[in-house]
# Entry
Amino acid sequence: MALVDIIMPQMGESIAEGTLSKWLKKVGDEVKRDEPIFEISTDKVDAEIPSPNAGVIAEILVKEGETVAVQTVVARLETEKGAFTEATPKTAGPEAVATAAPAPAAAPALAERKQPTATPAAFAVQSHNGATFEERIRTKSSPLVRKMAAEQGLDLSGLQGSGVAGRVTKKDLIGFISGGIPSTARITQAVTGGGGDHYPVPEPWEGDRVEPMSRMRALISDHMVASRRTSAHVTSFMEIDLTHVARIRARKRAEFEAATGQKLTFMPFIIASVVQGLKTFPIVNSSVAGKNVIYRQPINIGVAVALDWGLIVPVIKNSENLSLAGITRALNDLAARARAKQLSPEEVQDGTFTITNPGVFGSLMGTPIINQPQVAILGVGVIEKRPKIRPGPDGEDTIAIRTCCYFSISFDHRVIDGAVADQFLAYVRKTIEEYPESAV
# Structure
């Protein structure tokens, strides 16, 4: 009888736990090697986890919705099909967590370095400096949580969170900062000093359906509220004439797709023009750190991808070094893997500017919320043909059919003045309206 442990993988160097959001297989199901068997959610990314071996699911130890430390055994796989006998699933207990687990054969995009197995005994082991594992993991929250706490003047060692060993998560901290103590976290009263103003929780009425938010939806909710509280949001709009780019696409599409194997859309032209704008107006590619402004050297463009279960923003790293073909290839690859839940945490981190495209759903324009810790976000409205007044060759005005859309930029007025935001947007408009055909 050969049993293989399936563990909660390490989905990033700073991530100490994950939520098993959905089982794709049940006890008794036969699986192939690298076939997805469960989904996990972290504060960085959602992903499907493949089976390390071929076999039959013999035991499920962690329930859907349960959050466990990385390296925790979540299930066991029987690799000898004939020896398998169905057993009643049981929840993870100390004996399951303490089992030594081999590193899973993760998909290349999800592979991470191995970490020591987290066992109950480890929680009580004293380190050389006298701190327990529990104390160390609580104060060693993710870099984002530590940064948020520092900006608010909070000491993480005084907080008891909902994560492993009381580790304070981003959701815990946002809940505390926004004035309410989250039900999943117990934050010491000495630190809170009381709560803030907040609306009462609505009660369901007869006939209502109540469903808990998914982990991704809850994180999006927290992130949006925190961004509104952090940045002084202002939004400006401009109409962009894409007729020139549309004609380039019509002339070059077949040749481009034959040479690169990539579908040529409007978005790569927009991204390339935004990159030029960020080079010219570096304040738009910055972050605010207290009373300091960090001017980011790389231009990492995040592009929002709408999913059936939420929203995710994969990042095209070092976009300033990519050609139009390179941007197209990176964009298509990231979007496809986002929808397939195959992104690694690193591929949704370290963005410096974000583009969201509600126009694909027919929206004319919008006022997007800034993706922290960035200072601006571009919204792209629906691209459509419109009648426009243009000067004719004889000096008389004529009505022409043009391909147009509205761009909106939401910016952080703490560091970006309205004039600068409009100059940036005007520069992007000029760049895209005069895009050189030779660059395609």
